[in-house]
């Protein structure tokens, strides 16, 4: 079941994070402006963010099986609509709305929900990291496959190749969706309502800080996946380098996600999260300041890969530690909405800055500054469990 969840997430994330490869060839073929492509990816991220809490609530109540299968079919439909595009509208609806909606049902929140159902609490953060890390392998394969097909047969053929890969999410969802019911961390979780859980979370200052900091994660990552291939093209680099960079990000994210999950079971998750944001910001500042080369690009991709989805096991682990498991997909979904608002700004704002100034300098500067602010705020957040969870833990200890 963990394998099914990992494969589903791997394909969903790998295909999505490789869509930036299509920006330049689509601009040449159908005259798609950078701001139009950026808007489609931005809409994808905001749709994902808006729908994730609601899809998460469905998964918490009914389980992941049918939610994930339905989402996989929607994902395939979004790619098909984009492959037939001759203007900006089908790209916006396909790559934007449909894939954004589908990601709520096949993305990291649902994969983490499956992991929470089948692993022991003491290994939960590591399990989140393993699934998240396996979920990044798709980028390692999808980006080079997509670029090779684009160069040899055109961007439409590249998207049809992606459709073939996306169809594999359906059997993966069937296998992963067989996970049983969520365990209850305390007896009091039995009577906890969705409204009460949301009220409890909104009153926890640490959770609010974590959600706001997660905004920066989305801004930085989606800016890169959307605009790094175009940035390299403006620097006169080989178009294949963009795909190679995305593949390196995916490869190193396997180790980064596993490492963050392993560390999260041993050290304060809030401190690790803050350090992730700061390391990313230093890497961004250094890469976009120094001259671009193949070596610097792949080194930068490796560093970013080590911190890429490592935030997922740490954030999921914090939510489980603070609130328990009963509404973990809902509460991580609310936090993810903040992430996707940042993703919207990173995708659309990066394109708007490029169209206005002919470069990405101001976008990078903004991303670096807010990254450091988020890192400091995250390190000093309150990560104390709620009174309900503390009381449940005390009851369990007394019974033992």
Shape call: globular
| CATH class term | Mainly Alpha
* DSSP strand tally: 0
Average predicted confidence as pLDDT: 85
The end-to-end span amounts to 30 Å
Order of helices and strands: HHHHHHHHHHHHHHHHHHH
The radius of gyration is: 20 Å
Oligomer: single chain
> How many helices?
19
Assigned CATH superfamily: MFS general substrate transporter like domains
User: In percent terms, what proportion of residues is strand?
Assistant: under 5%
Largest sheet entry: none
Description:
The chain is mainly α and 400 residues long. The protein has one domain: MFS general substrate transporter like domains (Growth Hormone, Chain: A). It is built from 19 helices and no strands. Helix 3 packs antiparallel against helix 17, helix 4 runs antiparallel to helix 9 and helix 14 runs antiparallel to helix 16. The longest helix has 30 residues. The C terminus is likely disordered.
């Amino acid at each position: 079941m963990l394998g099914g969840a990992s494969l589903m997430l791997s394909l969903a994330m790998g295909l999505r994070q490789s869509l930036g490869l299509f920006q330049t060839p689509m601009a040449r073929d159908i005259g798609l402006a950078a701001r139009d492509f950026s808007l489609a990816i931005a809409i994808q991220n905001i749709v994902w963010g808006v729908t994730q809490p609601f899809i998460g609530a469905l998964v918490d109540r009914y389980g992941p099986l049918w939610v994930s299968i339905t989402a996989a079919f929607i994902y395939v439909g979004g790619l098909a609509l984009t492959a037939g595009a001759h203007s900006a509208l089908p790209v916006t609806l396909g790559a934007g709305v449909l894939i954004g909606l589908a990601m709520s049902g096949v993305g990291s929140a649902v994969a983490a929900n499956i992991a929470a159902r089948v692993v022991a609490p003491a290994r939960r953060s590591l399990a989140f990291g393993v699934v998240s890390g396996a979920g990044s392998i798709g980028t390692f394969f999808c980006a080079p496959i997509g670029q090779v097909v684009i160069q040899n047969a055109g961007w439409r053929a590249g998207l049809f190749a992606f459709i073939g890969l996306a169809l594999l999410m359906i059997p993966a969802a069937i296998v992963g969706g067989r996970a049983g019911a969520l365990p209850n961390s305390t007896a009091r979780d039995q009577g906890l309502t969705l409204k009460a859980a949301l009220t409890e979370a909104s009153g926890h200052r640490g959770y609010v800080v974590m959600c706001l900091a997660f905004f920066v994660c989305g801004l930085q990552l989606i800016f890169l996946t959307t605009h790094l291939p175009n940035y390299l093209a403006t620097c006169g680099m080989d178009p294949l380098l963009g795909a190679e960079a995305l593949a390196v990000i995916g490869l190193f994210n396997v180790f980064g996600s596993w490492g963050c999950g392993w560390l999260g079971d041993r050290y304060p998750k809030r401190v690790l999260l803050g350090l992730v944001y700061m390391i990313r910001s230093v890497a961004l500042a250094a890469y976009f300041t120094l001259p671009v080369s193949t070596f610097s690009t792949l080194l930068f991709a490796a560093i970013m890969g080590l911190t890429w989805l490592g935030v997922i096991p740490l954030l999921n682990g914090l939510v489980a530690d603070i609130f328990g498991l009963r509404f973990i997909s809902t509460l991580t979904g609310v936090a993810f909405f903040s992430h996707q608002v940042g993703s919207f700004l990173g995708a659309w704002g990066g394109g708007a800055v490029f169209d206005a100034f002919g470069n990405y300098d101001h976008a990078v500067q903004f991303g670096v500054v807010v990254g450091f602010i988020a890192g400091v705020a995250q390190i000093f957040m309150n990560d104390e469990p709620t009174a309900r969870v503390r009381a449940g833990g005390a009851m369990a200890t007394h019974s033992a």
